[in-house]
Amino acid sequence: MNLIKKTKVKVIKYVFCGFCVLAILFLSLELSKVNLSVPLQYSGDEVFNQSAIKGIMDNGWYLENKYLGAPSSGDLYKFPMADNLHFFIMKLMTIFTKNSAVVINLFFILGFFLTAFTSLYVFERFKFSYFLSLTGALLYTFMPYHMIRNVGHLFLASYYIVPLSILLILWIGKEEISFLKRDEKSKKIKLSINAKGWMSIAICVLTAMANIYYAFFACFLIVVSTIFETLNSKENTKKKLAIFGTGIFLVTLVILVMAINLIPNFVNEKSYKLNLENVHRDPFEAEYYGMKISQLILPTNNNKIDFLRSIKESVDQYPLTNENSRASIGMMATIGFFFLLLVLFLKNNVLKERSDILYKLSALNLSCILLATIGGFGSLLALFFAYIRCYNRISIFIAFLSIFALLCILEYIFSKKIFKKNYLLPYFLLITIVAFGMFDQATVTFDNRQLVEWYVQDSEFIKKVEASLPNNSMVFELPYICFPECRPMVRIDSYDQFKPYLHSKNIRWSAGTFKNTKEDLVRKEISSKSPVEVLKSLSDLGFSGLLIDTFGYEDKGEKITSDFENVLKKKPLVSDDDRYYFFKLSSN
């Protein structure tokens, strides 16, 4: 088959894969009911993510934002995020639209296609048939983890690099990767990187730029894979040292690229004294957010089968249940998960030609469990590196390993005579598996119509506020809510303070000052004063408006809005839902 024909076949394969993803998005997840100009979620972390995207639009990049943190400017230098790959893709999207909600929605939807393509690529690299690979890719793409994380945990839902990371992990110990070569004449070792060596480097770079959790887990599994191959290799000592050196090089490369990504956070003059309280983690949190095997193998809370849903709801009542309840890998992947555990007790000849890879998958799977389970090694690592705390998030790696094992089982079954005689039977079974997988896993729809009225209402109100003020006017927000990662206040969610910014173009908002910084302490002090003193302080600082979110008060803001109304002797501009009260202040 010539190169052009091979390329055409590959294109057709990936186009069909994309068509399958699109069909599932419309049929199972109700994508047709999505209003792209309104975010799929409008609370919690989604608001922060959307504000970062709008920050890219307004300022060129997300690290600095002149429209937040007034009277100074907001910045995220003190809040390191290793997600530059995702931000770069969204930066490209802003070329075509200036609506932050459209960008966050499209990027999330794009993640389904990218995950399917990378999964399909990896499975085919391991010689699975196309339709078997497609089945695995679709099951992995539509993990419950993907839908539940949604745009709130946007960068966790964007796990399209994970299959490539696992490809690299499985390559370790094979002669396919080469970075160095001994010259037969001079006997000297020279730099000689082959195609898979360059690809391994590229995967390491992408892994380091696509979420710190996934980079951490990938490094952990690279270490495990290196140790596994070194101990099980029948080669001589030099070959074992080469394997060990390859693993060390790959881990070092991931860490180095991640460090380069974070250079702006640590060298910028605004954060040279990085306040660790802004990103503080306690070691006990690794225990609290650890993985539970029960949550891994049980279905989601929205499962369509009442019996299974009731079991899940009962288990959710157990202690230490939190975001780890989102770790479900679905029934089909659970079959592969249990099979990998069974492989540990079988001889190293299970499923014939797949025995070696299954044995390694089993070792990797067990290592994930030992690291992430509550009371596991992750709890000990947290004593030295507490920044990684949500070890339950390794479930998306376990899911891929489990689906890989499931494909091995199906491949073995399809090799039997009954399937060879009835050539349509394997296709029927694969379609059934995908259909059941979607029934089991795709239990959350993307219908955001109920958010449209709420979102548009906020937008219309902020437009009225903006129309009443000159460009670049500063508006102070009450009540005071610290940033980042602060607890909700009455009915205000953690990042609700950013909602007004999402709907404005030229207003500078007080929200977004980092907790425990000089600017934040000033904002906190002003918020604690009496209305007369607040107005005096705001006048001195040059603020032109005051926005009160009544959801932050037990009395729905009745007292504080009345007090300011009495002092200012003017009626406020009130949102249709009576949530926001805006007072225009006299200019200096």
Task: Provide a brief overview of the structure.
By secondary structure, the protein is mainly alpha-helical. The chain folds into 2 domains: 3-33 and 77-441, no CATH class; 449-584. It has 26 helices and 9 strands.
Count of discrete structural domains: 2
Task: Please compute the radius of gyration using only Cα atoms.
Answer: 27 Å
* DSSP helix fraction: 55-70%
**Shape designation:** globular
| Low-pLDDT segments | none
Average pLDDT metric: 91
Number of helices: 26
- The number of distinct β-strands equals 9
Tell me the strand percentage band. Answer: under 5%
Strand order of the largest sheet: 6-5-7-9-8
Class from helix and strand fractions: mainly alpha
- N-to-C span: 78 Å
- Tell me about the largest β-sheet: 5 strands, mixed
Explain what this protein looks like in three dimensions.
With 588 residues, the protein is mainly α. It folds into 2 domains: 3-33 and 77-441, no CATH class; 449-584. 56% of the residues lie in helices and 5% in strands. It is built from 26 helices and 9 strands. It has helices at residues 3-27, 45-59, 84-93, 100-125, 130-141, 144-149, 154-157, 162-171, 195-208, 212-232, 237-261, 263-267, 284-288, 293-297, 306-315, 330-343, 355-372, 377-381, 395-414, 417-421, 425-441, 449-467, 499-502, 518-527, 531-541, 558-568; strands spanning 64-65, 74-75, 180-182, 189-191, 474-478, 508-509, 545-549, 573-574, 580-584. The protein has a 5-stranded mixed β-sheet with strand order 6-5-7-9-8, sandwiched between helices. Strands 1-2 form a two-stranded antiparallel sheet. A hairpin with a 5-residue loop joins β8 (573-574) and β9. α10 (212-232) packs across α17 (355-372) and α16 (330-343) packs across α17. The protein is globular.
